[in-house]
Amino acid sequence: MSEVRRKKVKELLQMEAGADVLAKGWVRTKRGNKEIVFIALNDGSTVRSIQIVADKNADTEPVLSRITTGACIGVRGKLVASVGSGQAVEIRAQELTVYGECDPVRYPLQKKDTSFEYLRTVAHLRPRTNTFGAVLRLRSQMAFAIHAYFHSRGFVYLNTPLITASDAEGAGQMFQVTTLDLNNVPKNKKGLPDFSKDFFGKQTSLTVSGQLEGELGATALGEIYTFGPTFRAENSNTPRHLAEFWMIEPEMAFYDIRDNMDLAEDFIKSLVRYALEHSREDIQFLNDRYDDGLIARLESVVNTDFVRLPYTEGIRILQAARDAGHRFEYPVDWGTDLQSEHERYLVEEHFKKPVILTDYPKDIKAFYMKQNEDGKTVRAMDVLFPKIGEIIGGSEREADLQKLEARVDELGMSRKNLEWYIDTRRFGSCPHSGFGLGFERLLLFITGMQNIRDVIPFPRTPKNAEF
Ligand code: 4AD
Ligand code: MG
Predict the structure, then answer these.
(1) Beta carbon of 440 within 6 Å of any ligand 1 atom
(2) What are phi and psi of 150, to 5 degrees?
(3) Looking at 44-165, which runs of residues are DSSP E strands?
């Protein structure tokens, strides 16, 4: 018996009855009567628990009484066919070991309140629930699928810096990085903070996007992607915004906007397909527990062509809907950015499928986007998804040196700070494109969860940096 190796619950549940086994994990529930005890044991390898059956007698009573919900235990025993209906096999316990007791009064996951709001307050323990186990396994699977997708297509994984001196999106939503003493900030002659005394000798922040450095990679290596943390100090308390989120940013030389859209569509579809194939059990659990339209929604995205629509057309559709009596909270005017309600109207009510909106007004998009002939729009593309709104933002890039410099000047940005970026257009400029997929937005779609705080282990949002 002693040489029996521990097996994970996922594996045990697939085995034939008869073997001597060793399982370790955390107790989900314990119930029973005077003679017998049933324990549901989970070790995080699957959403399912394995049933442990133990006889209650004078020998076992001392150890059984220490086993409560949340306790960590080991079980040696025999895998037998289960008479109960919930499972094919269960473990007949021969030896029980308690690794860690769990105070049944203080254990936070015993509370009746299992709302997501409550679980966010105990995010250090919520991975032990079935729901967060499923979500976090899916998150890990998707990260792997993303690397596999690009790897199989010869993209180079490029690590871009997290600390940077440039505001890639020009939106000014950056977290400053400084070692200056905030109680005694050195000042320059103008009375402003003297960043030459700071750690990097200049003002630096956490990155809002790896794109600009990604372009340096693409214009040398051909096709690259980044996959890393991204930070935005936008004070948006919404179910779709985090101050720290993960972004995947592919950047490709010689791709125009159409190639870019083709890649974005194929990329998302393969990720969804991967999830349906490799994480079926977790998705089924989330579907059955919270959202019985989840699997149908995932399958429909895999099997449908995304709509491709210029922004100007989108505005016409929205205005027509408004004029026909549809109530939008925000106005729809050409030249304004679309609100989530507008994006969702197009996707969920008008087309009933994902939409790639292109050719946005240049004034609501970043400086690096390729300018169209009309002088008003840029070759931007946002991929809009049901329930989510914007899941991807991207564009063909302005490859023309003069046009890029003119736009930088027009926006009052510093050419000097961007000299290294502008060099890509100065020395062997090439047409190129790229996009950014918000990892947590993708996970919202794949898990069917409603709030972005529930698809990342430890969410960072305004006024919240617990754990
Ligand atoms: O549209 P965004 O701002 O585009 C960029 O950053 C480009 N540099 C990407 C590129 O072309 N390489 O952000 C891209 C995506 C959004 O579509 C959204 O999915 C996600 O990043 N995102 C956020 N996700 C969570 N919380 C936030 N605060 C987010 N801001 C953007
Ligand atoms: Mg965007």
Answers:
(1) yes
(2) -75, -35
(3) 50-55, 72-81, 89-100, 156-157, 163-164
Q: What confidence score (pLDDT) does residue 3 get?
A: 79
What is the rounded distance in angstroms from the CA atom of residue 391 to the CA atom of residue 271? Answer: 13
- pLDDT of the residue at 2: 55
Tokens encoding 64: 């059984």
Pairing of strands 50-55, 36-42: antiparallel
Instruction: Count the Cβ atoms, other than its own, within 10 Å of residue 299.
Output: 13
Q: Is the pLDDT of residue 230 over 60?
A: yes
Q: What is the pLDDT of residue 339?
A: 93
Taking CA atoms only, the protein residue closest to ligand 1 atom 6 is: 209
Rounded CA-CA distance 423/402 in Å is 12
Q: Are 73 and 98 in contact (CB under 8 A)?
A: yes
What is the chain's mean pLDDT, rounded?
A: 96
Distance 169 CA to ligand 2 centre (A): 9
**Cβ of residue 25 lying under 6 Å from some atom of ligand 1:** no
Nearest-angstrom CA–CA distance, 465 and 459: 7
CB 193 within 8 A of CB 185: yes
- Cα 87 from Cα 270, distance rounded (Å): 32
436 CA closest ligand 1 atom index? 9
CA pair distance 246, 227, nearest whole angstrom: 7
- Calpha distance 29→42 (Å, rounded): 10
Compute and round to an integer the Cα radius of gyration of the chain: 27
Q: Is 226 in the pocket of ligand 1 (CB under 6 A)?
A: no
Compute how many other C-beta atoms are within 10 angstroms of the C-beta atom of residue 57. Answer: 10
Entry pTM: 0.96
CB distance 343 to ligand 1 below 6 Å: no
Residue nearest to atom 9 of ligand 1 (CA): 436
